[in-house]
Amino acid sequence: MPEEGWGCTTVSPYVFSVILFAVLAAFCFQQPPRLEGREVSREGTVERRHTRPRLDPRLCWQADPALGRSFRHGPALVNGQLRVVRDGFYRLHIQVTLANCSSVWTTVPPKATLIVGICSPDTHRISLLRLNFHQGCTVTSQRLTFLAFGDTLCTNLTLPLLPSQNADETFFGIQWV
Fold first, then answer.
1. Which of 121, 128, 126, 129 shows the shortest CA–CA distance to 84?
2. Tag placement on the chain: N or C end, fewer CB within 10 Å?
């Protein structure tokens, strides 16, 4: 006796799995679109990946597609610092979490400070953000500001404090608006 149903044939789980794998593989291996002309990426976010002891208060940043942080036609990363390649207004954002810090168990030095500023060119040095940890482990902030071509942004953290290496806890970037 035939079964009653919708009258459609069903696809076996094996065939469905093969089709799903083929679609996902095609999606993952396709080439990213090429940008032609003067199109510019509107943002750049970097993460900190530096494990040596800090002798300099400046934090060095990295960006790489393997790290999930990269940009092609926007800001440039020069010696671990973010350099602006186009005049305009930018939304600057930063978050830094201290390594080996727990608000419950650790006392953060009262003068623990993160400073973001324009450090180059020398004629245009200015502090954009000065953030105090206030006995906490994380500071986060953002600001809308005008940046000029060639401005290099530096981030300084009070020595000897170390930032977390986790990219979800410590990051820095700008977005052209």
1. 121
2. N
Name 123's Cβ contacts closer than 8 Å, sequence gap at least 6: none
Alpha carbons 7 and 23: distance in angstroms, whole number: 27
Cβ atoms of residues 116 and 151 within 8 Å: no
Residue with tokens 């208060």: 57
DSSP element (H, E) containing 24: helix 13-29
pLDDT at 68: 59
| Max CA separation in the chain (angstroms) | 90
Distance CA(57)–CA(59), nearest Å, equals: 6
Q: Which amino acid is at 165?
A: Q
- Per the CB < 8 A criterion, the answer to whether 97 and 161 are in contact is no
d(CA 72, CA 41): 7
pTM for this structure? Answer: 0.66
Q: Are strands 81-83 and 113-120 parallel, antiparallel or unpaired?
A: unpaired
**pLDDT tens for each residue of 134-144:** 888 999 999 99
58-176 is classed in which CATH architecture? Sandwich (2.60)
Domains of the chain: which residue ranges? 58-176
Q: Are 104 and 137 in contact (CB under 8 A)?
A: no
